[in-house]
């Protein structure tokens, strides 16, 4: 391979880096100046949480792939019991995720 064959990859890497890392660094610089209890940061956390929950709800209610063939009650049950396990385990995220996935996998296997 000649040097001219590599230039598209270099362009993709540089453009990808510029598109993401500059905003990350600007976020770090701006974030260092924010008070943890400020209204702006509370709003950002609320929006981020809402986006994560919207994606999760979309995956549960309108799944694609292999989840598409599972009944809604199974997906809702796994999510609900995973949330209950999360609360009972002292709000440990890993417990909620593992319980939900295990229940869903068991349900898919038995269904």
Describe this structure in words.
The chain has 111 residues and is an all-alpha fold. It has a domain at 64-111. It is 76% helix and 0% strand. It has 4 helices and no strands. The longest helix is centred in the first third of the chain and has 26 residues, at 7-32. It is flat. The model has no long low-confidence stretch (mean pLDDT 90).
What would the keywords be for this entry?
single chain, 111 residues, mainly alpha, 4 helices, 76% helix, 0% strand, flat
Q: Short description, anyone?
A:
This protein has 111 residues and is an all-alpha fold. It is built from 4 helices and no strands.
The shape, in one word, is flat
Report the strand count. Answer: 0
The CA-CA distance between the termini, in Å, is 52 Å
Describe the sheet with the most strands: none
Q: Which spans have pLDDT < 50 for at least 5 consecutive residues? A: none
Indicate the percent of residues in helices: over 70%
Q: What's the total helix number? A: 4
**What amount of the residues lies in strands?**
under 5%
Class by SSE composition: mainly alpha
How much is the average pLDDT? 90
Instruction: Give the SSE order as H and E letters.
Output: HHHH
What integer value in Å does the Rg equal?
A: 21 Å
